[in-house]
Prior knowledge:
Blueprint: E1 3-7, H1 13-23, E2 28-32, H2 36-42, H3 54-61, E3 66-69, H4 72-78, E4 81-84, H5 104-116, E5 121-125, H6 133-143, E6 150-154, H7 164-169, E7 174-178, H8 182-195, E8 204-208, H9 209-240, H10 244-252, H11 273-286, H12 290-317, E9 326-330, H13 345-355, E10 359-363, H14 369-377, E11 400-402, H15 406-410, E12 415-418, H16 430-436, E13 442-445, H17 452-458, E14 461-464
Parallel strand pairs: 1-2, 1-4, 2-3, 4-5, 5-6, 7-8, 9-10, 9-12, 10-11, 12-13, 13-14
Helix pairs in contact: 1-3, 5-6, 9-11, 9-12, 11-12, 12-13
Amino acid sequence: MVKICCIGAGYVGGPTMAVIALKCPSIRVVVVDISAPRINAWNSDQLPIYEPGLEDVVKQCRGKNLFFSTDVEKHVREADIVFVSVNTPTKTQGLGAGKAADLTYWESAARMIADVSESDKIVVEKSTVPVKTAEAIEKILTHNSKGINFQILSNPEFLAEGTAIQDLFNPDRVLIGGRETPGGQKAVQALKDVYAHWVPEDRILATNLWSAELSKLAANAFLAQRISSVNAISALCEATGANVTQVSHAIGKDTRIGPKFLNASVGFGGSCFQKDILNLVYICECNGLHEVANYWKQVIKINDYQKNRFVNRVVSSMFNTVSGKKIAILGFAFKKDTGDTRETPAIDVCKGLLGDKAQLTIYDPQVTEDQIRRDLAMRKFDWDHPTHLQPLSPTATKEVSVCWDAYEAAKDAHAICILTEWDEFKSLDYQKIYNAMRKPAFVFDGRNIVDVEKLREIGFIVYSIGKPLDPWLKDMPAVA
């Protein structure tokens, strides 16, 4: 029986290994992590992450050929294939701070694999890592190998949160990068054989190591660039009276462009886009490619600009001050169908409003109050470090309260900001909400999900990103 061990029980490791276990009943899969609370959660009825379909998959395999354990060294020692899915946070100090990936956790995982291994192993990069990481890992393993043969593969994940299980069941492509040596190609084939249980052969792509590593960063950079491009156009739409939804629909009909990732919004979030672009920028700078680095930096600048623009719209629309005003925040996760708040635009929008002394009432169907408070207390990039290095008990900001219902959040509010595109926000009783709000009542739709005309008929003053402006907003500045 082939034995797989995955180091890291997070958003990538947990779902990926669960699907491998489901699709490959003849393979024993163990997910290990040093965090006992996280492993306990994977072994309980309350999984540590929310992802549609994940619970079903885990329950079908757990205890049969899928196991979760804190005994890291034992399971690494026994494994034939070791996936490494640990954090690669952005460095917060030292060389490359604010851009480069911090490979501390990766390096300690590699040293531990070298220490405990008693048989040949295939070591698979599953985290998003900067180009040439495999080479560094290879050096650590070969210099500490005690005669054991290690083959390093890069197998980047291309999961989208909210559809991760579907993405794993039916991937666009599976990318496996390996050394172009007989041993390297044999290792590539071994991993191909795992995926071939359910993925058609023509979707399993083999490349060299560096191409696989760079493909992941490039894919995320291209997707983020599309969002920043349409958001840049949304600002122009507001200035000219064009409608960004109509413009992006027209653009998307061009088969060379396609319709995906062309929805204007308050900005992109998630654990990968910003981090991967910063990583790309750093690699370009290290290779003397400063024009290329500046090109990718601009994608992040537009994303920050969009969040600032949104906050400025809110403040300028409400007589240029939100001090002491109650503002309901609907949605805190970075996208619907996930409880993930990493780099969510909601953090920057909330901090911007709090900076102007607003009173916030926040509702999200999947994000806990503790997580919201923790996120608002954290400095940039802190989220990507282990929990014990994050603020322990976030200071309770008295200007923030968390509600478990959209109606409660909006009661007596001056304005509503929609920051996540949860389906339930489309079907709220907005007449009931309007009746319970202070007047004039504002809706700032950061996800373009409401029926603007219908809300205006009810009496709301509505701002929807990239749409023709409400007469109320016409002469108010979009940018401070």
